[in-house]
Amino acid sequence: MADAARPEGRTGGQLLADALVANGASHVFAVPGESYLDLLDGLYARRNRIELVTCRFEAGAIHMAEAHGKLTGKPGVAVVTRGPGACHASIGVHVAQQDSTPLVLLVGQIPVEETDRETFQEVDYRRFFSPIAKWVTQIDDAARIPELMAHAFDVAVSGRPGPVVVAISEEMQKHLAAVPDIGPAPVLPPHPAPAALPRMMEMLAKAERPLAILGGSRWTAEGRAAVRDFLVGNDIPVAVAFRRQGLFDGTSPHYAGDLGVGADAGLVQKAREADLILAIGTRLGEPVSQGYTLFDLAGRRPIIQVYPDQAEIGRVHRVTLGIVADVNAFALEAAKTARIPSPRWSGWRQAVRAAREAQAVAPDYEGPLNLARALQALEKAVPPDTIFTTDAGNFATWPTRFMHVAEGQDFLGPTNGAMGYAVPAAIGAAITHPGRCVIGLVGDGGALMTGQEIATAFHHGVAPIIMVFNNNMYGTIRMYQERAYPGRVSGTQLTNPDFVRFIESFGGHGELVTGTDELVPAFQRARASGKPAIIEVRVNPEQVTNRATIAQLRAQAKK
Hints:
By secondary structure, this protein is of the alpha/beta class. The protein folds into three domains: 10-177, Thiamin diphosphate (ThDP)-binding fold, Pyr/PP domains (Rossmann fold), CATH 3.40.50.970; 196-358, TPP-binding domain (Rossmann fold), CATH 3.40.50.1220; 362-557, Rossmann fold. The chain has helices at residues 12-22, 37-45, 58-72, 84-99, 125-129, 145-157, 196-206, 221-233, 265-273, 327-336, 346-359, 371-381, 397-402, 422-432, 444-450, 454-459, 475-484, 499-506, 519-529, 550-557, and strands at residues 10-11, 27-30, 51-54, 76-80, 103-109, 135-139, 163-169, 176-177, 210-214, 238-241, 255-259, 276-280, 303-307, 321-324, 387-390, 410-412, 438-443, 465-470, 509-513, 533-538. β6 (135-139), α6 (145-157) and β7 form a beta-alpha-beta unit. α1 (12-22) runs parallel beside α6 and α3 packs parallel to α4 (84-99). It is globular. The N and C termini lie far apart (68 Å). The mean pLDDT is 95.
């Protein structure tokens, strides 16, 4: 519960720290700045209630906070300084927006009396962040801190979750105010309307080829179990939205694969053949809809969409039935509904699963490292509660195609395609759940965008394992380059450090993998070391995707 009003006044910095505690924040991920020294002092006073995680770069700090929000369902909290600090953090605000992750970003601000002079590091944050945040505000009156901070946390988790930005002016943090703390509003989540589930079941009973697509955020373990029971109980094949592999057991015979960037052509074809789409928690955005080509925008093919924000239902694709509901509330209600007796689509579900199994078969790639087979062996070696984080890039399609995230594991990735996400997200995940194995998957391009955050792992005593897939290039851009301008390589080659020596310079554990059978032993040694670790996986640069070589792309482009 929030603290009662105190007879003595508190500084704005103390009120801010107390507001974070009152609203349930357990961690603050920050790069310190002179614009919020008083908040830092307030956090010092509350160090027994909230952990301050000192990061090395604002983009790293906010990715850690965003990962914390994904894993807990509560707003992750980041604090950065004004101007450049806020600009560096904006990438994480965009991640949280497109991933629907609850997030609160506090930004130190210039003194109010200097506004509109283009003073040192001045930015109008309302204008700067408004296109990518749910709400942006500025606190200039210390007495309003409890009110505005409580509302910030409420907005971050309401409806479609997302990021909120709060600017905190410098001198306000020094002002005294005698006001009570305010905690979260006890709002019950929206439940399906009384007629929603009966209508859904009527539509399902008429279908012959249904396909469920799971997406969205703030799923609880109970909600995931309930939606699994409903979908499996009705023998419905289940795909997951882009980078939402943690929502459904990939080893289940009902798992169809992921609909996103690099989706298997077999699954895409099955999605086209489906005569009913049950979209639960997903916006059916550009990656899921394969560039808005997979589903009929006019709604001639039935779509049932379950989403907590009515404004998003049917936003692009006209739906036959929209259900406004919290995903967990919907799942728990759906699990109670009667099952379809002897559903007619068992053969369909088996065919969808067969397509998934066919695409997961490892081809005979050339070279000493068959990455597909190495990853499949790794899947069997990782602990059952592993948290995976992934970066953006072509490398990410390899684990998506050849590995399966099992029930009890988590998978975090940026649906907006932000490079530099995986390393800080892995560190944030390890800080959030220090007892679990955390594996960050990143290409060599993304590894050097935020790889310095490895220092944060050492500083805070956590030991994620980072797998760097190294082909000395920006692989995704090279792929597109070879398709459009074959043989004209420009701007996509990279020069990399020795990643093993890089982690060893911090005192961590390093491994180099060049052969198929080396990955699992390297992982086991890294895990046993108890230290932050990097496993550098030297991949064949010619095999630029898991489906084509550079030579093949050039040949196709010249036809």
